[in-house]
Amino acid sequence: MLVLSRKSSESIYIGEDVTITVVEIKGNRVKLGIEAPPQVDIVREEIRQRRQQSAPRRAQIEVELPVLSLAGQPSDPVLDPCSAAY
Q1: Residue 75 CB: number of other CB atoms within 10 A?
Q2: Where are the domains of the chain?
Q3: Is the entire prediction scored with pTM above 0.90?
Q4: Nearest to 13 by CA among 3, 5, 21
Q5: I need a surface site. Which of 18, 34, 63, 77 has the fewest CB within 10 A?
């Protein structure tokens, strides 16, 4: 982690597109201004944690699918709609 000291109205640049400026320092609170392109997601830590906790858990299911038969190879009558089982 890079730690920098800044005074009020001083800025930090991240790459070419993101600028963080110290807008105000009052007591133990710091107000930051952030300029970034619209595609850059800027989210406070507590909001991000809340989103991650409330996101639905997606189960990973592994399914083994049988290979469908090709012409000239034996077929599975359950999977082959052209078989005599239908």
Answers
A1: 15
A2: 11-52
A3: no
A4: 21
A5: 63
